[in-house]
TrEMBL record:
Protein name per Swiss-Prot or TrEMBL: N-formylglutamate amidohydrolase
Domain of life: Bacteria
SUPFAM superfamilies associated with the record: Zn-dependent exopeptidases
InterPro entries: N-FG_amidohydro, UCP029730
Pfam families (UniProt xref): FGase (PF05013)
Organism this protein belongs to: Mesorhizobium marinum
């Protein structure tokens, strides 16, 4: 499937990154790679039913809303992805088998099966590379200016995965940035009843993660990934995203 990019309306092929608060004064740099479930019409929904694109397989439900509000509260720059991770995953190395997934959770993705090399290259050049380049240029500029920087990626996870229930309200994922992560976990843990775990429900793995190892650790920056359970921040939960943004802002400031 090779979409005719230039024949599509401009709105169907938005810029691959949305940047909020570009001149933000905070030392925090926010990244939300799975902010959107948008798939251009020429991909024909990758062969999936419309309802499938509302699920976690297509995006991180609620993550964008948390990231936007957190950007506002912290006065922090934020980079948001504008395409579904089913087209290409911005938090996967290009050589990962899940970079362009042929199966997500228990769902096959027909439009990603057996794609031509030129289709893969098009997704990389139009979406993946520009997003990463914007983040890299900003981080490099901060370094050259001597600005303190902490990298925080915002994600969400499903309450149940392949039949297994996940008890955590949130998880803080880290590799080298143990102190940064533990301080955040302790800050969130001051609120009674919250279950916040370290390296749950996933772990940072250079083979399967991009932002923390490449943008963060390779630059020697403190870098963590925050996972929030989707049922706590979905659009169905009144002010859920605002509550979590406030929690995170308070903990990150401390």
């Amino acid at each position: 499937m090779s979409p005719a990019v230039h024949s599509q309306p401009e709105a169907d092929w938005p810029p691959p990154v949305e940047i909020l608060n570009e001149s933000g004064a905070s030392d925090i740099v926010l990244i939300c790679e799975h902010a959107s479930n948008h798939i251009p019409a020429s991909f024909e929904r990758l062969g999936l039913a419309p309802s499938e694109l509302q699920r976690h397989i297509a995006w991180d439900i609620g993550a964008a809303e948390v990231a936007r509000e957190l950007s506002r509260q912290l006065d922090a720059i934020c980079f948001l992805g504008t395409y579904s991770r089913l087209i290409i995953d911005l938090n996967r190395p290009l050589d990962s088998t899940t970079s362009i997934p042929v199966r997500s959770e228990s769902t096959d993705v027909p439009g990603n099966i057996g794609i031509a090399p030129e289709d893969r290259d098009r997704r990389v050049s139009l979406i993946f590379n520009p997003f990463q380049d914007h983040v890299a240029r900003h981080l490099d500029a901060r370094t050259s200016q001597g600005r303190k920087t902490r990298l925080v990626a915002i994600h969400s996870f499903t309450p149940v995965f392949l039949g297994a229930r996940r008890p955590w309200h949130a998880g803080v994922l880290f590799n080298r940035s143990r102190e940064f992560a533990q301080n955040l976990i302790q800050g969130l843990g001051r609120e009674a009843g919250l279950i916040v775990g370290a390296n749950v429900p996933y772990v940072i793995d250079r083979q399967e993660d991009y932002a923390v190892p490449v943008h963060g650790e390779d630059r020697g920056l403190p870098a963590i990934l925050i996972e929030i359970r989707q049922d706590l921040i979905s659009p169905d939960v009144l002010e859920g995203h605002s509550l979590w943004a406030t929690r995170l802002a308070r903990a990150l400031r401390s």
